[in-house]
Amino acid sequence: MAAKRNEHFKSLQGSLMIARIVDGKRTTIRELGNQTSVELSVSTESIKIKETKSGKKADVKTLTTGRTVEMSATTNELVPADVALAFGAELITKGTNTVVDEVIATALAGESIKLNGVNVSALIITDSTGVPATLVEGTNYTLDADYGVITFKDVTSFTTPLKASYTEGEITVSEFFSMPDNAEYYVFFKGVDAFGGDPMSFELYSYSPTVDNSMQFINEEIGELSFGGTAHIVQDQEQSDGSLLDGYGRIINIIKSPKP
Fold first, then answer.
1. Which are the contacts of 90, defined by CB distance < 8 A and separation ≥ 6?
2. Cα of 235 vs its chain's centroid, Å
3. Rounded to an integer, what distance in angstroms lies between the CA atom of residue 203 and that of residue 14?
4. Model confidence pLDDT, tens digit, residues 187-216
5. How many Å apart are CA 228 and CA 82, to the nearest integer?
6. How many angstroms separate the CA atoms of 124 and 111, rounded?
7. Measuring CA to CA, how many Å separate 170 from each of 73, 120, 130, 137, 176?
């Protein structure tokens, strides 16, 4: 009887994980938000060397001039740290901030102005008379506190400029391109096979995200964030356990022992 063919059908899902590389060593690893796609691709650049003796200009050799390993992913769970990664940003947490007498733009009834802050509370708006008069929320203005937008209703009896004092609550900020251009990451993918076979994973030893990405800010369904990047070759890079990394990375087939 012929031996049964070893089947390798796979339908993979899984989790993408990254760790910042600092001084050649990877730091703590974190899992990205829910991914709808993860793609690993390789490509080569080459030139054809032709013979010049026969008049046929036949190919005699192919010379590889470059190799590229790329990884791209799309997530529909907009984790702040993932958004920062896609836009080349450091994720910064800012605590509570007290703002005193911020001069705000002159506006007429029905017009709106934007405060410098967001997540606003304890707002007090005063005018510029000798003994400052205080505007009343609901009578003289309305406040969209989350976004720091004031819409005026009746300000005819007040002397401009108006001044705002308030508390800005905790926020996280991702400023475009605030990440160093040489920032690198270790990437690890934990693959889960829907057919119930052996798990599969891959790792990239040194990965640099490219800031050529996109995020949907208005959508009919769930918003998605897409990003990609390139792996770099590592040569004899010593790890914390003394082992050495060499190459771009690897795909790993995890062979599980049969259950007794």
1. 84, 174, 175, 178, 179
2. 27
3. 13
4. 999 998 888 778 889 999 999 988 778 888
5. 12
6. 18
7. 30, 10, 34, 23, 20
